[in-house]
Design goal:
The protein has 14 helices and eight strands. The protein is α+β, with helices and mostly antiparallel strands. The chain folds into two domains: 2-157, no CATH class; 160-306, no CATH class.
Length: 337
């Protein structure tokens, strides 16, 4: 593969192998932190989450639009424009720390870890040769984060059916039959394509308990709209459906998860309210029907080539494996720890 050839040539050309390994492990670490921050901020603040991150990150993303002709797939995510120091500061801020602690370490230990990690990051970013202990320290950090990551991902995977939630307008529209258009979509999808629709919910670790009779407008809860069938779904075709751009439905999507070619799950923040979420589910439903393909092989090929799509789409990684096999480590997929 071209990437493997390039890595081999880099090492042959004098790049320290440890430097490449450190960057790979750092990629795992930082992408996990950004995923965690994104999930918790979206669950707490909904579409207002951008007001909680640095204006400098948003400004950088705006300025980068001049490079749209060669844009990164992550260009739509302002979190990717946060410097590492800004990301660590956001996580450790007094008004937000409670959202992230369950997925990380006790705060006093996290602060020490962040200081150590910053030193490793500076060496890597400025192409200074790594310290001999940088790679072992970074890998130990990933192992230390494993329990917290399991808590955060476990909360995402622990999804509940909505049959007891009778007063919520999203449930009434998409499960209770109050919306005739929604009922027709569900019926025709089942009859014509054998596609089943299910709506579930999950609760973030920090969310307040209490009654779940109505979830719309509540902080700390996520809707999971899922489609399953005997047909396959082309996630690339789904994401590029123009109907998602109508009324900004695409912006309401927190994540898209496809564990198998025959299922597709779209996640929304309950705090965004029924007026925003219910129509977005409808737009996604139409996009799902347009994304149906009969060839599973074709869908596998599409799923293996999504590296140029939005970072909210997951066909591999922690959100996909969450809840599937607890014996497999999150950050060390091919070894037992």
């Amino acid at each position: 593969m071209p990437a493997e050839v390039a890595l081999g040539r880099a090492v042959t050309g004098g790049v320290p192998a440890d430097a490449l390994a450190i960057y790979g492990r750092w990629w795992q670490l930082e992408t996990w932190l950004r995923l965690l921050v994104s999930l918790e901020l979206r669950a707490h603040y909904g579409h207002d989450w951008l007001n909680r991150i640095s204006n400098r990150a948003v400004d950088r993303a705006t300025r980068d639009e001049i490079n749209r002709y060669m844009a990164s797939p992550d260009a739509e995510d302002p979190l990717t424009y946060l410097d590492t120091g800004e990301l660590f500061a956001l996580i450790d801020s007094d008004d937000l720390w409670q959202l992230f602690e369950a997925g990380l370490l006790p705060r006093v230990r996290w602060r020490g870890a962040a200081d150590m990690l910053s030193a490793i990051r500076r060496r890597s970013a400025h192409c200074r040769r790594p310290h001999g202990d940088d790679l072992p320290r970074l890998e130990q950090m990933l192992r230390d984060l494993e329990p917290g990551a399991r808590v955060a991902l476990g909360a995402f995977a622990e999804q509940h059916r909505v049959w007891r939630i009778t007063g919520d307008p999203v449930v009434q529209a998409w499960v209770g039959g109050a919306d005739s258009g929604a009922a027709q979509l569900i019926d025709s999808a089942l009859r014509e394509h054998r596609i089943e629709f299910e709506l579930r919910w999950s609760q973030r670790p920090w969310a307040a308990g209490g009654s779940t009779d109505v979830l719309s407008g509540r902080q700390g809860f996520l809707w999971h709209a899922e489609w399953r069938g005997r047909v396959a779904f082309d996630v690339r075709r789904f994401w590029r459906d123009r109907g998602l751009d109508t009324d900004d439905h695409r912006a309401a999507i927190v994540r898209v998860v496809q564990k198998r070619s025959t299922d597709l799950s779209v996640i929304f923040a309950c705090v965004d309210g029924a007026d925003r979420v219910a129509p977005a589910i409808g737009a996604c439903f139409s996009a799902v029907l347009q994304a149906v393909v009969q060839s599973t092989d074709a869908t596998r090929a599409a799923r293996s080539a999504i590296s140029d799509l939005d970072s909210r789409i997951h066909t591999a990684g922690p959100l996909v494996s969450a809840g599937l096999d607890e014996s497999i480590p999150i950050f060390f997929a091919h070894e037992m720890v």
